Amino acid sequence: ARKAYRRALVLDPSLPESRMNLALLRARLGRTEEAAAGLLALIEDHPRAEGAYRNLALVRLQQGDGEGFARCLEQAQRLLPRVENARALADHYRGLGAEEHLAAVLEFLEE
């Protein structure tokens, strides 16, 4: 799969889907620094790429960076509100006991 994504990127380095999929593959292989770097580069080129922020949030969580997870997922939520993002944020904040953040997320879910 990695070779196929790399070939696609050689043909067209601007393909956001291939760049994101290659980053996710790297994350699955435990190469989270490379995955994060790839997603950050994608975000730099496409700042409204909600999926890149959402996937970077998962990489940050995999890295044990709860704050980074929340920051990225909040940005994804600002770009394209999704119930599943709000629920993941609510679970995260509930686990931290961060009531002020949790209240804002729960308010979104009630809308």
Write a structural description.
- Helix 1 (2-11) packs antiparallel against helix 2 and helix 6 (83-96) packs antiparallel against helix 7.
- This protein starts with a helix and ends with a helix.
- The protein has seven helices and no strands.
- It has 111 residues and is mostly helical.
- It is elongated and about 45 Å long.
Question: What is the topological layout?
Answer:
Elements: H1 2-11, H2 16-28, H3 32-45, H4 50-62, H5 66-79, H6 83-96, H7 99-110
Helix pairs in contact: 1-2, 2-3, 3-4, 4-5, 5-6, 6-7
Task: Please outline what is shown here.
The protein is an all-alpha fold and 111 residues long.
Number of strands: 0
The main β sheet shows up as: none
Helix content: over 70%
Q: How much strand?
A: under 5%
Number of helices: 7
List SSEs in N-to-C order. HHHHHHH
Compute the gyration radius: what is it? 15 Å
Which characteristics define this entry?
mainly alpha, 111 residues, elongated
